Amino acid sequence: MNSSCGDRGETLHFGIVPDESWLTSARISDIIPGVIANLETIRPVRWVRSAKRDAGRLGSFREDESGNSPKDAFVTELESAKSLPFLDTLRWTADGLIPAIVQEASSGEVLMMAWMDEAAVRRTLSTKQTHFYSRSRRSSWHKGETSGHVQDVESIHVDCDADVLLLRVRQVGGACHEGYHNCFWRRVDDSGRLEVVAEPVFAAGSVHGSKDPPKP
User: Fold this and answer.
1) Mean pLDDT of 95-123
2) pTM score
3) Which of 3, 103, 139, 148 is the most buried (most CB within 10 A)?
């Protein structure tokens, strides 16, 4: 089922995930009463639209850390769609992503950069901890989920061109998977070589083991 929504003529696709029989035009009105009749008032959800292009990105919702089913995740995303009008102002890439710079709120230290999709932005706002999107793994990830080195979000800022986010956080432990407090622990010296300018704050091997941490 396709339905045009809003004055931008965007299309919301239902029934695009073959193994999710609940997400079909025949049952969508049972899942969310009134949605079909009021699609014009509900902003389309980007991950649903993009799933036709990249169905693998919906995999993260099948493994939702809260234990919710894909149906629950879909309902939650639609129900919260009207509450985040700033998402309409952002300039997403063609892949539906936006770069995010993460900064230590207390000191201004730049910790890392990662990519976010709309689902990651929503999860970050709802949980008050950072969530990102891994382009290499094509899935969402929760920063610090395995290491415990989470980032508690104090505020989110949008730059003047609306194409970069700044997240001011309180970092627990280290932000870098190599064991450093931030990811920029190498500096270019006068000879053009890289020099290490920081000390690790944790042993990366003891935290991550043999499992590779997500990469942007």
Assistant:
1) 96
2) 0.61
3) 103
